[in-house]
Structure formats: C-alpha cells, structure tokens
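Exercise 7. Predict the joint structure of the components listed below.
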Amino acid sequence: MHDKQDIAGLILLIKKGDQDAFKTFFTLFYGDIYRFLFKYLSNNSDAEDICQETFIKFWQQRQNIDNSSYPRAYLYKIAKNLAFNCSTRKPPSVSYDNDLKIVSLAGKDPQLEYDNKNLAEECRKIINDLPERCRMTFILSRYEGLDYSEIAETMDVSLQTVKNQMSKAINYLKEKLLTKN
Amino acid sequence: MIHNKTNHDLLIRIINGTASPKDINLFDEWLNQSEKNIQEFNSIKFLWMKTDAYKVPQIPDPEIMWNNINNKINKSPLAINEGFDFSIIIKIAAVILMAVSGILFYNHLRETALPGNKVKTLSDFNTPYINNFNLVSHNGEKITCVLPDSTVVHLNSQSRLDYPEYFAGNIRIVNLTGEAYFSVKHDKNRPFVVRCGNSQVTVTGTEFNIRNRNNNTKIVVAKGSVNVLSLSSRIQKNLKKGEMVQMDKSGNITPPVQVNLKYYLAWKENKLAFRHTPLQEVMAEIERTYNVKSEFRIESAKDRTITGIFATDSLEKILSVLSITLDLNISQKGMKIIIQ
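Solution:
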C-alpha cells in the first residue's frame, strides 16, 4: 500500500518531533486503524475514541519505535492493546447500518442491496464468534492486509502462533460460511 | 488433517496479490500436488470473497479527529489549519471503496459455486480461479478504481477496463476501451501493460492518459516515461513527460510531440477541454459526459472548431458559450440537444 521507505522516512521525522510528518502519518493510517477497531469492537464511538487515543499514544511513545521493525505493526499494537482494555465492549448495536451505506450505493438493485446487507451481517456474526485473539488475528490478516510477521509483532506472539490462529479461524469460517450453500 | 499442513500465509499472499515470484513458483508446485490442494485454495479464495461484504465502515471526519489529537499533543492548540484538504481524501477514498466493493460484490454474485478445478498453473491468465473483473462506465459516469497492485485508474465516461483479480507472474496486464488515466504503482520487476485498441503501453511506474475513440488512440504522459508499441505494425516509441503520440487503425504512430497537458487531463478535473476541435467531436464528448444526444440540423456546423476549457458543472452554460462563439442556435430539449 505505502512504500516502506516513505514510511521509514516519516517515522524518522516523527521521532525528531516533526508534527507535519505526524499529520501525514495520521492521514495515511487513521482510516486503517479506525476500520480495524470498528471491526473488532463493532461500535462506532468506541472505535473513534480508541483510534484517536492510538495516535496520541503513538506520538507520546515515538521514541520507542524500533527503526528496524514494522512501524505499521507498532501502531496496530497500540490499537490492539487499547481495544483489549476497552471494558465497555458490548454486543454490536444498531450503528451497524451506517457501515453498509457505502456498499449499498454500489448496487442499485434492491435485491442485491438486501443480499449484500445480509451477507455482511452474516459475516460479522460469524467472525464475532471467534475467540478474541483468533478474531483479531483474522481481522488483521483478512481486512488490514498485514503479513504474518507483522501480525506476530502486533499481537506479541510467535509466528507459529499466528499460523495456528489463522488456520483455526480459516477452518472455522470455512465450515460456517461455505458449507451452507 | 490437510488443513493443518496448509501454508495459509502463502495462499493469502497469492490472493492479495503480494506474492513474490518465489511464492508463485512454490504455489504452482503445491497446487499441482493434488486435487485437494486445488480445492483448498479455491475454498480459501471463496472465503475471502464471502467475507468481503463485511469490509467498509464509514470513516469519521479526520479533521475533527486530528484537531482532538493535536490539542492533546500540544499544550497550546494549533489555531491555524495548514490547508490540508481532508475532504478530498475522504471523497477519493469513498469513490474507491464504492468502486472496489461494487466490483468485488458483483463478482461474488456471479460466482454461485466454487470455481472449477481443471487448470493448474497460475501463469495462465484464463485459469478459472483467477477471476477477471471488468469495470464499465456509462455515459455521464466516471469511475475511480484501485487495482490489486495499488495502481489507481480513473475511468472516463463510456469506457471499460478489464483486469484480473490479482496480478500473477512477472507482468501486470489490463485491457482498456475508451479513456482512462493511470497512476501506476511502481514495481520495476513487474511491468504494467495497458492494451488498448491495437496499442500496447508498457511502464514500470508512472502516470499517463490513454484515449481511444473512433479507432484513434492518443497517449499522453503526465509523469515518468512510457513505451508505446503498435501491436499491428510493431512500431515502438518512447515517450517522456508532457509528450503525446497518436496511433491510427493501421498502427502508424506519430512522432512524440510536446503538448499542453491540461487539455488532455481536463476530464479528470471535471472539465472539458478542446483545441481546434470540430463541433461534431465536441458534441460527442458532451454526449458522453452528460448522457445526452445531439442532432445537427446544419451539416456544415459539424466542422466548425472550438478551443477552450469548460467546467462541466453546467451544460446550459457550455451550450450558451458554444452558441455565441459559433453563432449557432443550440437548444436543449430534455435529453436532446439541437444545433441549428
């Protein structure tokens, strides 16, 4: 998505306290982080708050960013920790409809819209059934496009654990989503 | 259990289009080992498609969020906004999301069963498990789309782009009819190739516009350089930034000439630009942009030429400028424009 070198350059500037660079960095990633949090929390306002907090924390901890590792994973890691700590997590509410507006614009056919909505709802339910860490691993891979090493760093686990979690998630989802039709 | 042995990591890279050439070799090998592997890959790919619907939450206003963040990290809040236009980013993102989700979902619907299991090599573009997408813009419609390799394509009205679900192998090929602006993701190991009419444009990472209307293809380079090849005459030309070539039906290519880019890229900014353009062509462009039909009641008016750049927000205004400039009576009745 973004050139690794560009990001590394931005990180260097951010570490020096360059707020313009931080703003650019924010612009590049806030959408990703928000979407990730939304998927995990299924709640608009929590996702928004934690997204904001993630970037504030990233700035405050900017000196701790390891040049050699993945800056993206570092950002996701902060978001993940905040999300895990978010005690207000409750079953998803009606806010979900907002989520589907963009998708439904794509197809003007009402039947198609309806199917699309149902499919999204079905996906959401089944993904939410996964155990917490397994679910987060799957979201990072499927929706955020992180590779396994980045996920390992984000989740603070070994590569093997990521592999196991992903296999678990994939097998579960396959069974739930693909066997029906 | 076969699942436990499956290298999902590799399969996901293949599906996401981030696989390296080494990955692709490994993948081909693995795929050929058994029918089961093919089924496994198809089912994962299908799972990816199925879960695609759950993909696009609306993003909150970044400006508000940034201001909050900024207030927290600065003791004295920054009063001045440095003119960073978030709204544009949001709009672009929305269009891209719409386009991408639309395509992916459309494709999902088309695929009622798991794809067939016959062909076994990824290098073949027509394999059943690499889907080909097409993006079609009708009259009055423009589409922005992000390809699997992050290349961004702006499709002008009445155009069509065909591209694979992901780019396998060492080359990225797409097919275009009509007009599009490409902002190609740089990848020096995997050239990006646009086939359009009988022309073929090859780049590694650059920005350019291709317009193919009435068997005439115009290629203009906005950034970097491109190689233009005529598939029929095998003539090749290299173009640099700001240069344009034209190719006719039989594959003759004009020498590259330096042009004023704004005339060629105006459509992207929702403008119409003409330079000594015959009214007939002007009206054809207006038909595509506004989804209207025109009718000439004076034959000789077709060859009168126009030069100028028009904003496309008001068709009425354009028509009135044309009427005055050419001293013609141009009127609009519903979807029809009459020139007399």
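Discussion. Chain A is about 75% helix and 0% strand.
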